[in-house]
Amino acid sequence: MAAAPAPAEGAAPKGGKKKLIIIIAAVLGLVLVGGGAAVYLMLKKQHAAEAAAEDGGDGEEVSAKKAAPKDHGEKGTPPTFVPLDPFTVNLADKDADRFAQIGLTLQVDDPKIGDELKSYMPAIRNAILLILSHKTADELLSPEGKEKLAEEVRREAARAMGYEVEDPEEAAAEEEDEAPKKKKKKKKKVELYNPIVHVHYATFIVQ
Hints:
single chain, 207 residues, alpha+beta, four-stranded antiparallel β-sheet, 7 helices, 14% strand
């Protein structure tokens, strides 16, 4: 029986070719799987971006808007209160000697204004004392009188600091004077800034 012919020199064994084919197929499979995953992630990200854009921004911005508190602007900052020493003053009653002891706290819109207010304290106290000395007990004891006093203190305290604040009664009188002058064009009013936003009562005693 004749012997089998020997394989030609340099020819690869059949088993080696099969292994090479298997390796190439595995590599191609990995490439295809990885490419498909990358495409899937890109499509998913694009879809999320489009959905976020419909809601008014990208995902991060939407989350930030939901987490952020309501935008109150400057009003969102804590208020600044400046308490004043109590005022004791004789009132303008003519039928009897009446006096009032009133404690006030001024609320301002900025801590810097609070420091500035303290620098003008002598002028502010003088202005408030002049207001109180022209009041009667009946004027101070009525709710309307208390509200009017708070507005007067707010206005005159700001004026003592150098701010131009309009007096509503003076403005009304000017409008009455200008009413007959129909030919003149009415000027638009300009709102003037008042750093004192509110006046609070700490004590209020009238005797």
